[in-house]
Amino acid sequence: MTRPIAFRKVTDTTPSALTLPSLSGLPPDILAEASKRLGWAALLYSSVYFLAMFGHLIAREGIGAVLVHFRDEYAFQMIVGVVSIALGLAVFAASRHTRVRPQRLLDFGLVFLVVGALGIAVPNFWGVYPVWEEAFLATYIGIPWECMWILVFPIIAPNTPGKTLLASLAAASASPLVLSLSVAAGATDPATPLRTLLVYFVFTTYLCAIIAFLISRWVYGFGQQLSRAREIGSYRLVEQLGRGGMGEVWKAEHRMLARPAAVKLILPEALGASADAHPTMLRRFEREAQATAALRSCHTIELYDFGATDEGAFYYAMELLDGLDLESLVDRFGPVPSDRAVHLLRQVCHSLGDAHANGLIHRDVKPANIYTCHLGPDYDFVKVLDFGLVKSTGEAESNAQLTAQGITTGTPAYMAPELAMAEDGIDTRVDIYSLGCVAYWLVTGHRVFEGDKPMVTIVHHVKTPPVPPSQRTELVIDPELEKLILACLAKDPADRPQTAEEISARLAEVPGSADWGGERSREWWNLHMTI
What we know:
Layout: H1 28-68, H2 75-95, H3 102-125, H4 135-139, H5 145-156, H6 161-172, H7 174-184, H8 194-202, H9 205-229, E1 231-232, E2 235-244, E3 247-254, E4 260-266, H10 268-271, H11 278-293, E5 303-308, E6 314-318, E7 323-325, H12 326-333, H13 338-357, E8 360-361, E9 370-375, E10 378-384, E11 391-392, H14 397-404, H15 417-420, H16 429-444, H17 454-463, H18 479-488, H19 500-508, H20 519-528
Antiparallel strand pairs: 1-2, 2-3, 3-4, 4-6, 5-6, 7-9, 8-11, 9-10
Helix pairs in contact: 1-2, 1-3, 2-3, 3-5, 3-6, 3-7, 5-6, 5-9, 6-9, 7-8, 13-16, 13-19, 16-18
């Protein structure tokens, strides 16, 4: 089963509010990426503008001489240049601010498109030719700089075709407008043939505006297709959060309810199922999803919905968690003290006890499938995940065959010996063994057995006695906790604790078991899990 890396961690700096549907027709993650591109384009615009207009003047005349131009006939151009550079920097700053919605920034980007085009047009056409000469037309036979600006903008910062067309036409009008105003202000010879030049602009800037509109339509249409492709049942996929061997997990939003979710897509090819076996697989997943949804432990991931796409992929819609899995917890912060391990493990027992009482065996209990969360006022609140491939105890032979069709269950580093040997009649005690492996990981930062290949690890689980946890860590491990962990790791299921409730009761007897939680857990989270 895939590691559920898809659930958002609290170290994520993005806003926690639910992303609203985009009015532009583009998926929110693409809008967010476009807003970042707009910011970098704005910074590049300001940098190039500064070098082109002020850089050579500073290098040639010095800053003092450049300041003189703010009081001579070039004052207007200099002021427009400063405003254009400042606007570009403002757009860049806004793109780095997480509170600015991407769609709003992209709308403001259209204003920047127009003002940026004016900033380009003023140095090129305001008072450049105070006396009309025929050489003017020869000089401007080429394409104005605004054309490149207009053409690349719908690719950098996509928006609706209508908005893009209006903004592009306004940007294309920048040069004719500046030239006309320059003539009216007396900065350019009144004999300048504006009508002739207007024809020139029609076949350059205005033509580019039309091309930009066509580009925008293509981008918009692609975005709509992508948005429709991301609609799974009643959910709209917003952002891909992870990819594993069996599929993908996405952050999603319900199209009717203001409720975030995590949608896990399980691809049919990952299950090894043939086309003929697809209906059988669908029935199996539907049965197991319904059984999982019936679980009532507050420490079991809540399953919202289940279904299959037209392409044959299965999906689960689950609650979106704010935390990190136990594998990441130990990888990042090292092994946990005994009292915290007890606090976490008792909550796992609560979830497994509920599942076992309802006839379900998880079969893939591992640190990556256990999340510790910040949930309301609670810290280190555990959620057990990935009940998607559970096995029902006492199921009929036909159902057992459904489980076996092309699916390898369990993870070698946490797999009970009887499950690794594919013995008949496995029961809930395989989860007890896996829970012992999880506890071992929590207090030592090491797996019980680590082989170069999965088969080597499996053989160790079947034959090799585990090294006591206290011999593999510098932390002090309570003897009662170590004794319980080793009992869970017994090769013979009869030698293990027989139920999750029994483990929870023995954990409660560990000295100091009630020390973690409340203020201590809150302090740890505030110290380590906030930015």
